[in-house]
Design a protein that fits this description.
Number of domains: 3
Mean pLDDT: 84
Order of helices and strands: HHHHHHHHHH
Radius of gyration: 23 Å
Helix content: over 70%
Strand content: under 5%
Shape: rod-shaped
Structural class: mainly alpha
Largest sheet: none
CATH topology of the largest domain: Arc Repressor Mutant, subunit A
Number of strands: 0
Amino acid sequence: MQGLALTLLRAFEQPAEAPQLFLDHVILGACSHLTSRYGGASRAALARGGLSPRQVARAQAYIAAHHTENITLGDLAHQANLSRSHFTRGFRKALGMAPYPRLLRYRIERAKELMLHSDLSLERIALACGFSDQSHVTRIFKQTVAISPGAWRRDRKGSWG
């Protein structure tokens, strides 16, 4: 870092001799060093193209807070300050799945909680979890859990009562 600072200092003292591209390169090097050293991203995550723990946490918190809304890839990428393509690639590397399946998994887990701890109809649960209707939650639930939501609820509530 000291070498980069000295290089910048010399360039600022004689600006006519320092091309803009060179300055951009040195400044980018300094920013890269500061980000990797103090930004919370592990070197391994950066090397493999994954998201930093902070970026993962922000994306997951956004999903939790907005799971009932029509979340876009742009919304999630914005949380990590990345382009949509870089975010998707990093998210997949960090969590082992793309953002949309992660959102669906969160919605299914939330639906399970509501089925266990409330007497809401499946239609109301579907809407409360961000699904468009009861058939949508049923289809995704069966794909994810391999049983219908009604059967899952009966099995769980029956084992408690």
